[in-house]
Request: fold
Amino acid sequence: MLTSYYFDNKMLPLIRHILPFLFYLIKNFIMFFVGQFGSKVELTKHEFTDLIALAKEGIASRRIISDLQERLNRVSNQLYSIRNGFDKMLDETRDFYQAMRIAPQRVKEVFTDIFQKAKEAREQKKLQRVIGGCKMTPYGG
Reply:
């Protein structure tokens, strides 16, 4: 019986091909006996139980296949979104990567200079806030 919802994505096409074949076999099996023995078919209790179990499994597997198709669509959409984001990031950073290939030391120096200036600007703002917050009175207090 199919009891797990966790199939490998490679199994989905296989399941899609096997289930119709199983239904076809069951239908032809029943039709064969109907044709051979008239309109009534006699099955043993065991055969009937097996036939019912196969029918239930087929119905349950339809739901599983539907869930797997939805999951596959969601993952495909996520992959498409990630791939587009990666392509966009690659386009936006192409100049940086080219510069890194040509002159990695110079790029490092430029970024170090930029980060140092940003740090100094933050420290200057902080100092101005501290000095601006202290109000001097004529008596020093």
